[in-house]
Amino acid sequence: MLTFILRRLLLAIPTLIIISFVIFLVVDLAPGSPASEIPLTVPPEVRAKILESMGVNQPLWTRYLLWLKQFFWVEPLYAIDALFGTDLAQGAQRIISYQTRGPVFDVIMQRIPQTLTVVGMAYLIGILIALPIGIYSAYRQYSWFDQLGTFVSMVGYSVPTFFTGVLFIVIFSVKLGWFPSIYDTTLKVTDWASFVKQVMQMTLPVAVLALFNAAEISRYTRSSMLENLGQDYVRTARAKGMGEGKVVMKHVLRNSMIPVVTIIALGMPSVFGGAIITENVFKVNGIGSALIGAIHGNDLPMVQTITFIFAVLIVLFNLIADILYGILDPRIRYD
Amino acid sequence: MNMRTALMGAAALVAMAPAAWAERGADGNVNVLYWQAPSILNPYLSSGTKDVEASSLILEGMAGFNEKGEVIPRLAESVPTVENGGISADLTTITWKLKPGLVWSDGSPVTSADAKFTYEYCTHPEGGCAQAARYEGIKSIDTPDAQTVVITFEAPKPNPYQAFVGGTSPILQAAQFANCLGAAASSCNDQNFKPIGTGPFMVTDFKVNDVVTLAANPNYRDPAKPAFATMTLKGGGDAAAAARAVMETGEFDYAWNTQINPEEQARLAAAGKGVFLNGFGTLVERIEMNMTDPSPSLPEGERSTTKHPHPILSDIKVREALSKAIDRNLLVEVGYGQAGRATCNLVPAPELYASDNTGCLTQDIEGAKALLEEAGWTDTDGDGIREKDGKKLSLLYQTSTNPVRQDFQALVKGWWNEIGVEVELKNIDASVFFGGDAGSPDTFQKFYADVEMYANNFDGTDPEPYLAQYLCDKIPGPDNQWQGENINRFCDPAYDELVKKMAATADMNERGALAKQMNDMLTKDSFVVVPLVDRGRLSAASTTLGGVVLNTWDTELWNAQDWFRMK
Asked: Taking CB atoms and an 8 Å limit, are A174 and B459 in contact across chains?
């Protein structure tokens, strides 16, 4: 197992370098320039100077190699410095955003908590809703519960979040006035009152995202359960006189979990990646909205760094999914 | 006087007290929404409106502009003029005097050295200062004493209210920014994100592209202001959601630039929780005519250059006909509602500079047709499109991608089709169109189309640099990396003369007359620029927020110190 993990990790290095280069090329070759953010009232000479000071005009290779060095060497040094109070980085140039003229990682560190609380919570709630629904729907296939579950998940899956988000705002914020429509990122949870406030402002975005996540996961759980419920070993287990609960929850569920776990693990990077649309609708201003803002502003360093972090997470969670197979299914061995 | 009147008098006094002796910080928190979130709080490193306006709560200049476009003192004791001796008679120096006893929010005194430092900061060759134009033409800045700043210009400067005036050129604290000169400017995070200023508020926390938390400046020069103890300036979302947050849910007190379609404006205004404020500045949506030939059959490097005049649009009659066919009032109704008004002027304001040109406001389809006939464009084959010498009257009309602009394109195309002009529409992503990339064929400067539409304005109240954009030597072309500002490739020696004359004229009335003359030369006399809509600002304020005055000449938050909560 250990050699398998090591081999996969080593293989990931060239993969990630190729990915980083492709991202860099795509972002760089895309039309558009940070100059479009500068108002027309700024004269051309001044405009040229601003772009020069950003380093936009350097050749592609120079910028790419500099970015590689900054991402893999300088930024980790700063991270170590911040953790242990050392001074390894010695003021080396960090990855600087065109828009804010500040380090990209500072923005990412500011944004991660919002994204993890809102999107992470939504994912967790989505899973907690989806699994029981999926299991029970499969166990009582074509019952009214199954029909209802199918309907809700179809709605959840097919209606886009920019629609449900605005719909929820119109119903619950504008008409009923129960929940705020704008997420307050400065709120600190210190006592019961602020905790309640936090829960209130998380309710709508979490509800929108949880509905969407639950829809997908519950469908996978249901179909996987159905497949296993008809298997011979289930009949054997029942014939041995096992209780229904044990048959379903122990034998069938464990076998059915394999595809579901893959889906859940592969969905994890999107938790860190944030939910671009939902974050924007509710102004949660997490990683997703940072990315979309950077794309709008042609902020190449920011787009490059954030997308690359997503790539790393996707590679990582693929590996985790593979390892989980081995744990769930004793027949799968990687040696 | 009996007891009762005495009591009534006392009661009246008590009732008036909050207004008369308002206390700093008495009104709690005010929530402001900028749907484009501020990225940085140093206007010298970003010219984006959102950044300049957010910084203006903290940083101030010697003077600013009020809602009428008049210069008002901020840090200066008074506004220097030729009459009060603050500006020398030959217009080469201006002397600013700081108010006595001014301190920064950290308690240290504001001195003339700070102003001088700010000048050095912005004019440093490696700093990439976004506001460098404000400091152009300055020979030296002297500080004879701690209160006095004397700016000497290289040549007579009829409009000296540029450096240190308005939200785009505030004074920085020298002590704080001392190590941020030149290339170091962008590594100074603490400075750029939390500048120390003299304004009514100071930053307590700044989450980049998200939210700025501010608190009343304890050392603000007026001890009774600001009325709000704290301000939250949140960003994110879009204009419609921002308008909703003030007008419908009431979560926010003020929302910036809530430019939404007219029906939505009416619907939200009816909710009664807030009001829309509108004001007009100098932003004009216009159609620009290309005076040179953009034909793709020309070799690269010659397309849209002065080598080849435009085969159709070089004829003034065609240009006039195209302008005549447009119903500008309908465009306003469809696109902007109360945030726009039809205009025929390139310089629609200030009053002193605005021409009385209204000839284009009524649509005249028949007149347009007659003009085209006169110019020799007739529909000989009956397909609805006019021809001349075997060439069809066909135009490529480009603009940036934006729902209002696409509506405008469709309407204008309809009218032009009606007079027998074939129109092909094209829209380009704004980041490309305005990106200025010399390698891209789709920038507005390259103008590889016959006509194009966008909006432009000028900074402050003086149109001189704006009108000077139409000089012959500012035509974009391959030799200057397509960076010129004379988008139409308009070139008239008489016009160049006027620009020179204006640069040397100090008398305000004469300057006004010159600006009007130049405006008319570009618009109603030549139809090179076809102005459509004077686009105003539309912002939303809660009905409980008092003291808000929309200002289009300076930042919208120019008088945040006077805002208060209505009880």
From this structure: no
